Amino acid sequence: MEQLDEQERAGARDDGAATGVPRPRYDEAGHRTPGAAEIYLEVQRSPAFQEVRRRYRRFAFPATVAFLLWYLAYVVAATAAPGLMARPVAGAVNVAMVAGLGQFLTTFLLTWAYARHARLRRDRAALELRWDTQEMTRGAGQW
Amino acid sequence: MVTGDHQTLALLLFSAFVAVTLGITTWVSRNRHGSTEEFYAGGRLFSPMENGFAIAGDYMSAASFLGISGLIALYGYDGMLYSVGFLVAWLVVLLLVAELVRNCGRFTLADVVAARMAERPVRIAAGTSSVAVSVLYLVAQMVGAGSLVALLLGGTGEAARTWTVIGVGALMVIYVSLGGMRATTWIQIVKAVLLMAGTVALTVLVLIRFHGDIDSLLSTAAERSGHGTAFLGPGLRYGGDWTARLDFISLGLALVLGTAGLPHILSRFYTVPTARAARRSVVWSIGLIGGFYLMTIVLGFGAAALIGSDEVRASNASGNTAVPLLALDLGGGAGSTGGTVLFAVVAAVAFATILAVVAGITLASSASVAHDLYASLRRPDGRQYSEVAVARVAAAVIGAAAIGLGLLASDLNVAFLVGLAFAVAASANLPVLLYSLFWRRFTTRGAVWSVYGGLVPAVLLVLLSPVVSGSPDALFPGVDLQVFPLQNPGVVSIPLGFLAGWLGTVTSPEPPDEARHAETEVRALTGAGAV
Q: Which parts pass through the membrane (chain B) (predicted)?
């Protein structure tokens, strides 16, 4: 047990050292060290961050509402209007089958669109903000 | 249906899987330090593809492999509704949860919430609900393991079932406590590859049998089901009265919102280095899981078309043996070498599936016990044990508890138990997670209220539901406590979880901590300061 304690403490020290990234520190009373708090508030107010957040939210929120509504409509239609869903489309394939496969298709499409949007419109800006923020928190003399 | 050959071959294949996974466990745990990073997160250096396979392995349980195909073979289209819900749920994970959780947390769900709240009460609340969800899910898998043995190996006796549950439990404790996240991840990857390979092989054989003609597959299935074209539309299973229909909507809601609150899924995002890698792992897993569920649909209709619904029902009333029967038929029928081999492969894959899923959940719940509950509840002046040591002991205790509960609950329906775990996850874990990530004014009281405000109603409504008492096939048919008409509490308890979080926040005397919200938001979206 004692030996594990040693190793864990060593592991905990490694966390910071390996990534070179400070973890937020709190003093005994649970208040955070002054400095880092202002930096995060400052970054949050910066136009660069607001832009990253806006790009993320303007894609993720409407898309979430859309797919949840489409899924709920599908479940409610399957339980409340089985007659409509059983209407044939082509051969043995009916509306329900098309709607179900449509759910699969829209899930794949949205996954692809989100990944592409994040890669092209968000990743680079977020990474720059990450380095800048970490530079600043290090400068604040946290560690 | 089951001959000695099947049993021997299936047991051989399964023993090979156990041997390989035990080998992996000892191999990856050599020369590893018992650090928390290593034990909970496997060193955080898995690639997106590896993690994507591991996520898929964690998610595709035997309940989906055998259960959904079986439901489709018996009830046609209504079985398909499950596969859609299980897949669409991943969009919630991808769009709202995966990247942000990777950036903000270290090992558990509670890390994300505690970062901007008073740590102790939030950790205790989120840790409790995570353990509750994990134990429910675990019991479902243990029950599944027990019935699978009874079904596939012909061990209809109670003894075979009991020893399987105990054996599965003991194995998973060994995997988890010796190998931690690294071994668990590799076991998931091996299992996902085996499961996908088995499913692809069967699907191709079904399609070859119908010369690639989906239309003829569907019409043959409708014909042999005895329901005609009604088999291809919704309503055969969930058509009944309005209670049954509302129950299904409740289940659908729980499925789509629960995945993002499952602790063993959330902990998988910490095994990759960055949020971008977390996103790419989810993209991989959506591809794998989507493909898998599409194939289970083919297998389900294939079983209806080639075996016939009545014969499937005669073998097992809830349809769980549809895929093994289909494998036997596709291989050339009972008694043929091909049939024996395919049947044994399917049985072994199903066992491997259960074992891997159980290991993943045990690891996540032992992390919640050690990292959240033990770390918050221990006395500061008491003896200090390392978190990893506590997690190892917790894995053993949780394993023992799951074995006990799994034996007690052996008559409950597996799919129902899984639906229940999803409902509790969606009610107790998802609201607090989304509020923490997206709501500026969210406070500590709101966080604590939203966890308990979802957890307590979800559990209470189940206790008062027809599942526990008041109906002929209830857990306790003798007593009648039934007040709530639905089997799945999701439609009531999920809104209650969100409502309680909102109510707790607006009635909070303390103002929200602007600075720590700023920190959470900046870290979530940029990855600054992420470990």
A: 6-28, 53-75, 81-101, 122-140, 160-178, 190-210, 248-270, 282-307, 341-364, 385-408, 414-435, 447-468
